[in-house]
Amino acid sequence: xxxxxxxxxxxxxxxxxxxxxxxxxxxxxxxxxxxxxxxxxxxxxxxxxxxxxxxxxxxxxxxxxxxxxxxxxxxxxxxxxxxxxxxxxxxxxxxxxxxxxxxxxxxxxxxxxxxxxxxxxxxxxxxxxxxxxxxxxxxxxxxxxxxxxxxxxxxxxxxxxxxxxxxxxxxxxxxxxxxxxxxxxxxxxxxxxxxxxxxxxxxxxxxxxxxxxxxxxxxxxxxxxxxxxxxxxxxxxxxxxxxxxxxxxxxxxxxxxxxxxxxxxxxxxxxxxxxxxxxxxxxxxxxxxxxxxxxxxxxxxxxxxxxxxxxxxxxxxxxxxxxxxxxxxxxxxxxxxxxxxxxxxxxxxxxxxxxxxxxxxxxxxxxxxxxxxxxxxxxxxxxxxxxxxxxxxxxxxxxxxxxxxxxxxxxxxxxxxxxxxxxxxxxxxxxxxxxxxxx
Length: 439
Ligand code: GUN
Ligand code: ZN
Known about the structure:
There is one protein chain. 36% of the residues lie in helices and 22% in strands. With 439 residues, the protein is of the alpha/beta class. Helix 2 runs parallel beside helix 3. The structure holds guanine and zinc ion.
């Protein structure tokens, strides 16, 4: 049976355009795709429709976390160090625990469940170097019903030997993962995942790029997050004019590339990323936690670079994309304050609507899935989050009719406390409801 959903819809259309339907109706077909979205109650295309009335609650597209690490969630909240010592002291020892496949499956289940509880309907995650842990993570994603883009982490140097796999050994492992899981259904996807240039030889980067092209996969990696990382990369790869050139040279850059962080990219690198159609994934919480820097967001958008948003757990200390959207706005203000202090010109900081765009349609575009995900449009999957902003109100009195939908969303971003995520829907089905489970 199809469904007709009523509520207050916030529908991002582009960076600076958002459609608001104060009392809107979304009609969903039997398969879970959107048939129409309108401010009028249009008759269905025949067949039966269940009417679900959320009255005045807010409805946003499903949140897309475009960069996070499943295997790091266990140490979220600790590890205040710069990137490279942080990897050695906290990250690699934690990732080694995933040699235990039962632990990997158990943790993956609760990780994906928490994503859903927080309104994330699509998650793009690094697993570990362990092929079995990656199979387990796919199995857990399938069980929870979340959309998951997952990758076995590829490393062949500068990491504990247990976490390193040569290109030759990695190829059959990755091919088995692709064969078993990639597009097994509309929700599961494999991602080519070279961790970053420091932990990959040229041979492994070539393999990662070939996999992305040959199997039409996204490729995720890290770039220009930290100044020591950049100089170490250029030492390991002499003869390159900048960090991006290393990835370009070995075939890792194209429309398929999801480049985590990108804080310190030069102007030239930003232009080349734009020309290649690759995306930068902004990870503001992580960038501050590790003291990495503040992304020059507005400048990059003005230069036409595609940007998405990611929690980057565990350098980011939470899986909430609502928190992350707020942090993106606050980082943009901080960046402006720095520019002002330096006597440089300043443009508008990121708006609430832009933060919602980055958390939804921006992610879908980075994944090249904007025809099926990211906002409310005919033919896309009905992935959405119902927000009960009464819980975000300091005195939990009535939501005022004078508050605009954007002001109400602002309150949710800044105060996303217990019960604010009322329910999370993937492909027209409710797979988390705050009445039935706890965050
Ligand atoms: N660069 C390489 N690996 C990582 C990682 O796991 N987290 C972050 N934040 N940066 C990285
Ligand atoms: Zn990361």
